Amino acid sequence: MSMKRRHFLMFMGAGAGSIALQPFVQTGETLSIALEGTSAVAQTAGLPFVPVKGPMPVETAGVALTRQISQYGSYAVKDDVVLPPGFTYDVVVSWGDRIGDKDHFGYNNDYLSFVETAPGEGYLTVNHEYVSAKPWAQTYEQVIGKSLPFADVKAAAQAATDGELDVYSLPDGDALKQKVYELSKAAQYDAGLSVISVRRKADGSWERTYSSADRRISGISGLEDGNYLKTTGPAVSIFRKTSGQGYIDKLGDKVIGTHQNCSGGTTPWGTVFSAEENFQGEVTDPVYADGTAFSPSNTPFVWVTAEGEIEDIAGQGNALGYQGNKYGWMVEIDPAKANDYGTKHTWLGRFRHEAVGFRAVEGRKLAVYSGCDRRGGHLYKFVSANTIRDLKSKSNSRLLSDGMLYGAKFNPDGTGSWIALKADTPVNPDLPSVHVGGMLTLPKRPDGGFEKVKDDAAIATFKSQFKTLGDLYMGNATEKQGAILIDAHYAANAAGVTCTARPEDTDVSADGTLFVTFTSGSPSGSDGGPDNRIFKGPNGETPYEYGWIMKVLEDGNDPAAMTFKWETLALGGEPAEGGAGFANPDNLEIDGKGNVWMVTDMSTDKHNKEVASRVKSDGTAVSQSNLRGLFGNNSIWYLPISGSNAGEAYMFAYGPTECEMTGPFFTQDQKTLFISAQHPGEYSGVRMEMKTEARKFAMKTTDGKDFMQTREVPIGSNWPSKQPNDPPKPSVIAIRRTSGAPMT
Fold first, then answer.
1. Could you give the number of structural domains in the chain?
2. Which one-letter DSSP state was computed for residue 283?
C-alpha cells in the first residue's frame, strides 16, 4: 500500500477493503502525500464512474507515466458541466426564473438543501451569495426584463475619489442617491434564499411543482414588504438599544433581509440553515465596545474594476441604510412554512460564516459547528444549554436560544480545547509571530473597531490593559455577552482562539467525526493569516495555498466536550509536490456509503490563467496562488473510504467557465446529486461568438517531469443554454445516471 493511501486511510479511520471505521489515529503532524509507484496507472475497477480527465495529470486518471506528456500536451476546456459517461444533468432552476407571482430566482446560488416530504418530492432551499457585477450588469435587462442605471452609477463611482460613493450622507431626493439605491436594492434582492418545490418525474428528471410555500427571502425582505427576519439570543439586547455609541436603525430586533448567503446545513428536524459570509463588503464589520454598529458611511458604495476585467459592486448597505451588526449571522428557515422568512440565532456568533455542521444525538446537548471564512479565521462550536429529546421535533430549534459559543484552540501536538466566548474568559492572544504574515487583529479601545498588531511585545501591553473579554465590551451582563457575540472574530483573537486557514465546510459524519475543509493558507494584509505551527503544506511549507481537510474528534465522543483531538490531511496541490491534483477544497458531502464528495473553490481570476513559465522575468518563482491557473476550472471530486480505491481522489466532474460548483446534496435514495453552478462567466462575462483562446501552461507529470501544454480556453460563458452569445445564468442542476440507478 502506498504512503499516500496509507495516510488517507489512517486519516479517515478506515482500512483498505473495510467499510467499518477503526479507532482514531492521531499523529499531531500534517501528513505528507507521496507518489504512487512508477507506473502511476490508477486502479479504477470498482469505482462507481469513469473519472473525468482534467487538464492536470493525476495518478487516478489511469494514464501511464510514459504517456502523460503526449496525452496532456493539448487540452480543450469546455463551457459546460462535464460528467463521466452514463451520467447526465437537468437544469432545475436558473437566475430569473419565476417564483410566485412577483418574484424570481436569485443570483449566484450556493448551498442548497433538499428536504423531502415524500420519496422523490420536497423543497429545495437555495442560497444566493452575491451578484457578479460584470455578467449581472451585462445581462440584467435581457434576463429580468427591467432596466437599471448601471452606466450612470458606474461612471459616478469611477469618477469619485477611490471609487467610493457615500450616498447615505447625501440628502433624500438627490438624483445619484436614488440611482444607487435602485441598483443596490436590485442587487440585494438577488441575494438571500429561494425556496422551491420539486419532484422527480417517471423518466428520472426533475420538475418544479410551484407550491404555495415557494418564496424568496432576499436581502431586502422587510425593506418595503414588512417580511422582516427575527432574532434570538443575547445580541437582541443590542439590537433593541435606542441609543449607544454607534448607528441604530430604529427597527429594534427586526432585521431587513439576509445576504452573502454562502454555505449552510440541514437539521435532522427538517429546517435549513443559511450562512451569511462576506457581509463586510456590504456593511461595516467592526463594531463599538457596546456592540453597536458603525455608520453606513463607513462602508461606501463602490464599483470596482480590477485589471480591466473582473468587476465588483459592493457597499450596497450604504444606500439602504443597513445596520452592520445585524449581518454576519446564521439564518434558520422552515421551507415548509410559507410565512417563515428566517430567524438569525445570535448565540451562533457573528462572523463570516461558511457552512454549519450539526451533532444532534438524543439525550445529549446540541453541538453546532461553523467556520469563519477569512484568512486567519476561526473554527467555532455552539453547545446548547438543554438536551435533545426527539431528534425529529421542530421544537429543537428552541435549543439555539440558550447555550454558549466556543472557539477552537489547536495545539501542535494534535490536541485541542474549546475557549468560551464570554465575559470572564481571560484575554490571552497568540503572538503575531506565530501567524503566517506576522499579524493579528485585536479589538481597538476606546475607539471601537480593530487594530493590526505586528509586534509581539504589544501583546503583553494589551494583556495588562484588559484582563478578561468583559473588559473589552460595555453594558450589563446580557449586553456584554451580546457585544462579544457580535464582535466574535476579534473577541476570539483576544481570547487566544487559533487563527486558521480560511475554514470552509464543516460536516459531521455518522460516527460523530467532524470534517473541516481549509481552503487556503495564504495570509492577507487586512485579516492576517493562519497559525504556522498548525497549517503546513505536505513538505512543511508555509504559506500553503492549496488547502487541507482536517478531522476533529471530541474527547469521549461527547458533543459538549471541552477538549478534542485533531489531525490534518494535506490534499490540495500538484501530484508531483504531494497533492492530489486539485486546489482549494470547499464544500463536502458524505454519501450514503460514507464516501466523501468535495468541490473546489479557486479564485475566478486564476481559472486557466496562463502559466507559460514557472519562473518570472526577475528570476523568482511564480507564486502558488498564480500556479492555480494550472488546475483549470473548479471541479467535483470523489474520495472513497473503502475498497481497493480507498485513499485516492477522483475527478467526477468540472464546471462551466469561470464557475464554482457549490452545495452538493444527495437525495435519500442516492439517485440524484443536486448541486449549484455559481457565477459562470464571472471574469469575462458573456461568451461572444463562441470565442476561445490558446494558452500555454508549464505542466508537470505526476513524477515531476516538465512539459508544455497548449490549452484552448473559452472566453466567457453561455451556460446553461450553451448557445452563442446567450447570457450565463447561475443555476441549480440535478445530476443522475441515465440508467436511473443510484449514483453511489
1. 2
2. S
Dist. CA 662–CA 587, nearest whole Å: 7
Is the same domain home to 245 and 343?
yes
Intervals of the chain under pLDDT 70: 1-4, 14-45, 307-310
Nearest to 134 by CA among 116, 154, 114: 154
| Cα(706)–Cα(89) distance, integer angstroms | 36
Tell me whether residue 364 is in a domain: no
β pairing state of 98-99 and 103-104: antiparallel
Residue where a domain stops, chosen among 305, 335, 351: 351
DSSP character for 293? B
Q: Is the Cα dihedral 110, 105, 113, 128 positive or negative? A: positive
Which of 363, 353, 374, 473 has the alpha carbon at shortest distance from 422? Answer: 473
Whether 316 is covered by a domain: the verdict is yes
Q: Look at residues 301, 269, 81 and name the one whose alpha carbon lies nearest to residue 177.
A: 301
Residue written as grid cell 471574469: 683
Provide the grid cell at 638: 470523489
Contacts of 618 (CB under 8 A, 6+ apart): none
Q: What gap in Å lies between CA 6 and CA 437, rounded to an integer?
A: 33
Whole-angstrom Cα Rg for the chain: 24
pLDDT digits (tens, 9 = 90+) for 477-496: 999 999 999 999 999 999 99
| Residue given cell 475566478 in the structure block | 604
Q: Where are the alpha helices (DSSP H) in 443-596?
A: 457-465, 477-486, 488-495
- Burial class of residue 36 (count of CB atoms within 10 Å of its CB; 0-12, 13-18, 19+): buried
Report the C-alpha gap between 252 and 323 in whole angstroms. 11
Chain-centroid distance, C-alpha 223:
27
Contact indicator for 440, 432 with CB cutoff of 8 Å: yes
Is residue 38 located within the same domain as residue 184? no
Same domain as 58, residue 139: no
Domain assignment present for 76: yes
- Phi then psi for residue 569, to 5 deg, are -110, 120
CB atoms within 10 A of CB 477: 12
> Are residues 122 and 248 located together in one domain of the fold?
yes
Write out the E strands in 583-672: 585-590, 596-600, 635-639, 650-654, 660-666
Q: Residue 294 belongs to what domain range?
A: 116-269+279-351
Strand order across the beta sheet in which 164-165 lies:
164-165, 301-306, 310-314
